[in-house]
Write a structure and sequence with these properties.
Layout (H helix, E strand, L loop, with lengths): L1 E2 L2 H11 L8 E9 L4 H14 L5 E6 L2 E6 L5 E5 L3 H10 L10 E9 L2 E9 L5 H15 L11 H24 L20 E10 L9 H15 L6 E7 L13 E7 L6 H15 L7 H4 L12 E7 L10 E5 L6 E2 L3 E8 L2 E9 L5 H15 L15 H13 L17 H15 L5 H6 L3 H11 L5
Parallel strand pairs: 5-6, 9-11, 11-14
Antiparallel strand pairs: 1-4, 2-7, 2-12, 3-4, 6-7, 8-13, 8-15, 9-10, 14-15
Helix pairs in contact: 2-4, 6-7, 6-9, 10-11, 10-13
Organism: Herbidospora galbida
Protein name: Carrier domain-containing protein
Cofactor: pantetheine 4'-phosphate
Length: 471
């Protein structure tokens, strides 16, 4: 037996209080097309279970403390299914027995003659976002008959070492956080808070693009865009909860929970890019204490599923793995049907754009409310050199498109429903507008749109249908 890690302890308490719902369920689906060897995939699942002992653990209470204990071994079952969506939903919503296990489950389902899917669900107590990459890589290697090098450190050993590091750095962490009190809760238009626990969730997804800026990471620019959004909603010093990895070199290949959520507060000034540069500096300071739980360094932090009303996670999408003889497609961001905060932004950086999955309480607002927030955020992301001052309405998509039309056509005022061709526009005018919209707004509008709906209202509607929402 080993005392649970700090991250596990926080989740265990939240589970015991009955506030987690399915917020800590982490599903992943691999879709296979072609002549899959289902027995080989089943054996690969069993090999992963043997390799990563943490999947067979549980967290139980002993003398009032949460302790890692041996739990039931994760099942790896073979089945058939007619409806993959329903199977994923059932497996995702099925509860876990935290104190006895199993805390993970594998289901290999035959969907058709040459169509299979692997539905994997784990509890966050033994799994995190980076574990998804490790799981899929190991599964592919074992399926392909390859071996993996022996793991250098167990999760239990990591937890023991982490306690020592936290003890050594706790005094400095307390001093660091005492000088950085979190801001007030941000009011999001149309969304309301539902308490300190998780709520039934809904999702809205849009695709955006991020400009590469010197000396600033794409994550920092995205986070700066979120802070700017909240600033424009009236918060002078927004606080956003961010998931940070606590992995050390010895556990780079381990499945497990290696995440610490910390609050990031900034007072936006200058441009969005300036906010990103400020965050670049501030985060480097904070990273020194990324392994220290916030509740250990700051008094009075009550158990809750998120440290702030708005939370962010960010990851770069890895290429889909190679399973010999079949085409494998991974859904890395399957929704677990719960939300930990008023609004959680899960950003997945992909070669064809940044996919932002907005998770919100199903009863706290409507899809239209969230779509408006998405549009405001997208406008900020597309304009990193724009000033943080102002309101989202002043920089809305309609006005940005109108400004480009006015520049290209040389007209001071253009109404939403005025016809481009009646205003003197032609084919070359359209190509110039398209080029400026691509550069300034990060959107690609087909030429046909201008011929079918040659108005500002028509073009804006086409953008909203094609870009923000990815169903």
């Amino acid at each position: 037996m080993t005392e649970a890690s700090f991250a596990q302890t926080g989740m265990w308490i939240t589970e015991r209080m009955g506030r987690a719902r399915t917020a800590y369920h982490m599903p992943l689906v691999i879709d296979f097309e072609g002549p899959l060897d289902a027995c080989a995939l089943h054996q690969a699942c069993e090999a992963v279970i043997r390799r990563h002992a943490v999947l067979s653990s549980a967290v139980a209470e002993i003398d009032g403390l949460p302790v890692m204990v041996s739990g039931q071994r994760p099942p790896a079952r073979l089945t058939s299914a007619d409806d993959l969506h329903e199977l994923v939903r059932e497996e995702t919503l099925r509860p876990f027995d935290v104190e006895n296990g199993p805390l993970a489950r594998f289901t290999v389902a035959k969907l058709g003659p040459e169509r299979h899917a692997l539905v994997f669900v784990a509890h966050h107590l033994v799994f995190d976002g980076e574990s998804k990459d490790i799981l899929v890589r190991d599964l592919a290697d074992f399926y392909n008959g390859e071996s993996r090098p022996r793991l250098g450190m167990s999760y239990a050993s990591f937890a023991d070492d982490e306690r020592e590091r936290v003890c050594d750095d706790l005094a400095e962490a307390k001093a660091y956080w005492s000088a950085r009190p979190p801001g007030e809760a941000t009011s999001l238009p149309g969304l309301t808070a539902t308490g300190r626990g998780a709520a039934e969730g809904a999702v809205y997804t849009f695709r955006g693009r991020l400009t590469d800026l010197p000396d600033v990471s794409r994550f920092e620019l995205f986070l700066a865009s979120v802070h700017t959004l909240l600033h424009r909603y009236g918060d002078p010093a927004p606080t956003v909860a961010v998931d940070l990895s606590t992995r050390v070199p010895g556990v780079r290949d381990n499945i497990g929970l290696f995440v610490n959520e910390l609050p990031v507060t900034v007072s936006p000034e200058g441009t969005v890019a300036d906010v990103a540069r400020t965050l670049h500096h501030d985060l480097r300071e904070m990273y020194r204490f990324r392994h220290v739980p916030y509740a250990r360094a700051v008094r009075g932090v009550r158990p809750r599923t998120a440290l702030a009303q708005v939370s962010v996670s960010y990851r770069k999408r890895r290429p889909d793995p190679v399973f010999t003889g079949v085409k494998a497609t991974v859904d890395w961001a399957v929704f677990n049907h719960s939300v930990r905060s008023v609004l959680h932004l899960q950003a997945v950086d992909h070669p064809d754009g940044l996919y932002v999955i907005m998770q919100y309480g199903a009863g706290s607002g409507t899809e239209l409310d969230v779509a408006r927030i998405a549009e405001d955020l997208l406008t900020i992301m597309n304009n990193p050199e724009s000033p943080v001052a102002g309101t989202p309405q002043e920089t809305a998509l309609d006005d940005a498109v109108r400004e480009i039309w006015q520049e290209v056509l040389g007209i001071d005022e253009i109404g939403d429903d005025e016809d481009l061709f009646d205003l003197g526009g032609h084919s070359l005018t359209i190509t110039q507008i398209i080029a400026r919209m691509r550069k300034r707004l990060g959107v690609e509008v087909p030429l046909d749109v201008f011929f079918d709906t040659p108005t500002i209202a028509g073009v804006v509607q086409a953008i909203r249908e094609a870009e923000p929402a990815v169903r």
